[in-house]
Amino acid sequence: MTTQGELAAKLAEIGAQLKQVREAKDLTLDQIQAATLISKRHLQALEEGNLDHLPELVYVQGFIRKYGQAVGIVNIADQFPPAVPPLEGLPSSPKPELRPWHLYVLYVAIVFTSVSVLALFLQEPLPRREKVSPPVTEPQVVPQVVTPPTSPTSAGAPVNVKVEMHGESWLRVTADGNVVFEGILSEGTTQSWTAQEQLNLRVGNAAAVKLQFNQNPPQVLGEEGEVVEVLFDRNGARL
């Protein structure tokens, strides 16, 4: 299992090698940026082995590969550990903890609910029962409202997302709670997904992804190297 410290050390070794070859060929970072379309701050982070200033590991390999091709080192990206195993050595997301104020809020909610229920019983029970009785004749109306969304005639997917790749990027697509794609799409690739309720899209390089949601005009998601996550549903899209 590769730890974060080992990853940083390996990245520093590769970055030093890239920098040495670049300087030997009298190339500037601006020239490398123009050749690779990688932002200058990410190129500097590669040379310094600074993982904190880089996106997800799957995309770091792409940065190394493009930098290496620009200076003539084709297979240098193979020296960096694969993207999936290192994730096991990285610190996991903090798990939710039950704090004292959580218990306090729960206690207040229980007390408030109990008092409200008690107040209902103390307020003229007979007239209240007369008000509750009429809705018993109305449940037949509820299925009338609920039935259309679940009927076979409306089963078509209302959420449609299409991407056109203008560069290389890692993507993860979740449709209605299920991961339907996770991997790297190369430049020129076109892909589309549909969902009944919600579709979540997470990309590692927003500038490489041109996206079209339903019938809306296609647009680029963001800047080079920017990690973006967008949620699409019947009401639209939101970050």
SS class:
alpha+beta
Using DSSP, what is the number of strands? 9
Estimate the global geometry from the Cα principal axes: extended
Please state roughly what percent of the residues sit in beta strands, choosing from under 5%, 5-15%, 15-25%, 25-35%, 35-45% or over 45%.
15-25%
Radius of gyration: 27 Å
Task: Specify the number of helices.
Answer: 8
Compute the separation of the termini in Å. 33 Å
Q: Element order, helices and strands?
A: HHHHHHHHEEEEEEEEE
- Please tell me the total number of domains: 3
Largest sheet: 5 strands, antiparallel
Low-confidence stretches: 83-96, 136-155
CATH class descriptor of the largest domain: Mainly Alpha
Helical coverage, percent range: 40-55%
| Sequence of strands across the biggest β-sheet | 3-2-5-8-9
Summarize the SSE layout with pairings.
Layout: H1 4-24, H2 29-36, H3 40-48, H4 57-71, H5 86-89, H6 100-122, H7 125-132, H8 141-150, E1 159-165, E2 169-175, E3 178-185, E4 190-195, E5 198-203, E6 209-213, E7 219-220, E8 228-233, E9 236-238
